Amino acid sequence: MLLIGSGFLTHNLRALGLRETPAWASEFDAWSADVLVRRDLDALADYRHKAPGVRESLPTHEHFVPVLVSAGAAAESAARFPITGFWWGGAMTRRSVQFG
Amino acid sequence: MTPSYRSGSSAVMPVLFLAHGAPPLLDDAGWIAELAAWGKQLPRPRAILVVSAHWEQRPLAIGATRPLPLIYDFYGFPERFYTLRYPAPGAPELAQRIRELAAAARIRCVDEPERGLDHGTYIPPALHVPRGRHPGAADLRCPASRRPSCSRSVARSRRCAGRACC
Questions:
Q1: Residues 59-78 of chain A whose Cβ lies under 8 A from any Cβ of chain B
Q2: Do B149 and A48 touch (CB under 8 A)?
């Protein structure tokens, strides 16, 4: 069985029109990548308090929940990122993760 | 042979998190090429379980365990966006395994059999799964709490999914 968490690390629909990546999006994206690579699930689960730019990156949280599930399900598997960057050079991160 | 989701074969299967895009990205050749290249490197699964971002109600729910029409949950796009097909068979044995694991962990879990796959589930695989080779599909709909702390339901969902893929 292939488990796929399907969502977005940053999901702010009010920022869809941006054509420059704001600091809050790049910082949140980079923080997410760092905790995923370090397999720091405690920090990941506490993202609402620990992550920079979380308020702007995730006005609502439903699109982030699947990465918690994937990371939790992957146990100790190493994380890598087959797809990165930002759509339209804006605020929506394209970052996708493969654990293991 | 009856497929089993208890066997060790899934131990070698990676776990993914996918930025699932949006309908306009069906025209993004670069992204589609990246998805295709990634997909080619993955072992072929018997079934795919997608953790949905499009379900906020409690409790945990299992959906689309049998073939259903896709949900075109977007508006105002050209006609071709509404003719995309993703004819995945259901994955009833996988759904049953999830029910058993949730029950063992005392996580309330219900079926939502009438709601089909939405854009978060079918758009990425529809772009690169070879015709006629669709794995079975089901999706797991995890509640998303608006409370400021990481919700207990999310943590419970993590455990449930983690066990489901063992």
A1: 60-63, 65-75, 77
A2: yes
Residue of chain A whose alpha carbon sits nearest to that of B125: A4
**Do residues B62 and B68 make contact, with C-beta atoms less than 8 angstroms apart?**
no
Residues A37-88 pLDDT 10s:
999 989 998 999 999 999 999 999 889 989 998 998 887 889 999 999 999 8
Interchain contact A30–B (C-beta under 8 A): no
CB-based contact A15:A22 (threshold 8 Å): yes
CA distance B87 to B135: 9
- Domains in chain B (CATH in brackets) are 45-164 (3.40.830.10)
Looking at the complex, does the CB of residue A25 fall below 8 Å from at least one CB of chain B? no
Min Cα distance A53 → chain B (Å) is 15
Global ipTM: 0.95
CA–CA separation, B58 vs B54, rounded Å? 12
Give the 3-state secondary structure percentages of chain B, helix then strand then coil, rounded to 5. Answer: 35, 15, 50
Hey, is the C-beta of A99 within 8 angstroms of any chain B C-beta? yes
Residues A70/A3, Cβ–Cβ less than 8 Å: yes
Two tokens, residue B62: 């299992």
- How would you write the pLDDT of chain B (166 residues) with one tens digit per residue? 344 444 444 447 899 999 987 777 777 888 888 888 888 888 878 888 888 887 777 788 888 677 777 777 677 777 777 777 777 777 888 888 888 888 888 888 888 877 777 777 766 655 555 545 556 666 666 554 443 233 334 444 444 444 333 2
List the single residue in B with minimal CA-CA distance to A59: B146
> Looking at beta carbons, which residues of chain B come within 8 Å of A97?
16-17
